[in-house]
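Entry 12.
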Amino acid sequence: MRHFDNDIEEIKDLLLRMGAMVEEAIQQSIRALQERDLAIAEQVIANDDRIDEMEVAIDQRVIELIAKMQPTAGDLRFVATAMKITPELERIADLAVDVCERAIELNTEAPLKPLVDIPRLARMAQDMVRHALDAFVRRDAVLAREVIGRDDEVDSLTEQSFRELLTYMLEDSKNISRAIRLTFIGKYFERMADGATNICEMVVYLAEGKVIKHSNESA
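Predicted 3D structure (tokens):
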């Protein structure tokens, strides 16, 4: 066994732990919005520091790994992928914090409407993040491409949600502030899905050594 196999497994484990924390942040952020629960929202915001610390820890382990080994091509792709995935996960966690901040603001006013599309967006984003991490662990380019393909559905639902919220704004100017905040929340979940897509583009690179970012394949 190569002497750095354990180091690679440790980095993989740290990434999965960070991913689990990010998934939990997504789930709790939509709970905070739907249930109008300030305590949950504040907890997600407070936990963001732990995710930031995890990103720093992973970066440090990757740097140490590079310093002590001369990696093969496959291992070098793993190192590059790990360094790209951690900031994506950190940004997704930040977006969950943004959701909770808007949820806290919305709690000062009466609900604008029953939430339908936004919880669907949240579930789709969370599923994409989970499957992106699964694809990374398994080095599964097929699953990664399936996740990338779901991004168009998220974009379509985000647009549908925006059009509905726009009608509320046009009907009554008193609805504008609440509708705008809900629009922001929809965009936050769309950007989480974009983050999952970016992770999957790196998984394809990890598995196949093929860069598909900015190519027709990733469009």
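Annotation: Helices lie at 5-35, 38-68, 73-106, 117-138, 141-149, 151-171, 176-208. The chain has seven helices and no strands.
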